[in-house]
Amino acid sequence: MLELRSLRYHPATTPAALLDGVELRLEPGRPALVAGQSGSGKTTLLELICGLADPDGGSILWEGQALNARQRRGLCGLVFQFPERHFLGLTVGQELKLGQRRLPSERVEQVLTRVGLQGLSLQQPPERLSGGQQRRLALAVQLLRDPPVLLLDEPTAGLDWSVREEVLQLLHQLARDRVLLVVTHEPELFKGWVEEGWQLQGGALQRLPRLRTMP
Fold first, then answer.
1. Model confidence over 185-195: pLDDT tens digits?
2. Measured between alpha carbons, how far is 192 from 99 in angstroms, rounded to an integer?
3. How far apart are CA 83 and CA 80, in angstroms?
4. Does pTM top 0.85 for this prediction?
5. How far apart are CA 152 and CA 50, in angstroms?
6. Which of 3, 17, 120, 123 could form a disulfide with 10 if both were Cys (CB 3.0 to 4.6 A apart)?
7. What CATH number does the domain containing 195 carry?
8. pLDDT tens figures, 167-187
9. Alpha-carbon distance 96 to 192, whole Å?
């Protein structure tokens, strides 16, 4: 279980705290959602959880144990809103194997198949992939790390409806054995997919109406 206790974050560039006493509990197998407008602190919340920033107050716990930033980076996988801006490999194959040079090719193919990219050429640049393929590639990179916590920033932004549906189906499958948290400014797109959701506003989380999970 992932827990946020009295989490607070007040950057010097904002007049008020972006996060002020945030409380949240997330469990494996129960995909969750945090909604909010641009500038509300959604992305900051993910950065704090995954160890890219440290809170000004409060704690982040896994299975009851408080974690420092380094431990959180090992625990979490983060897929950015525009993953193509964060690709470092010159080819798809290089991107998949960053930091894991001895990764077996069978493992790579297994993960590519899981995210619907089976048969993809590993020699092409990631920038030549479609938007939906780039999201799937970013997911594959994280799944090769096999993090217990998967964080997704606007995973359906900029995708057409048919591709959105495919991505949602994939995320629902991935959530079965891990904590999965999505942040979005369009919570209505995820109705029928998540059971629990919150609205981030004024630095605090307020529970959204109950959302039915997919069958």
1. 988 888 878 87
2. 36
3. 5
4. yes
5. 11
6. 17
7. 3.40.50.300
8. 888 888 888 889 999 999 988
9. 31
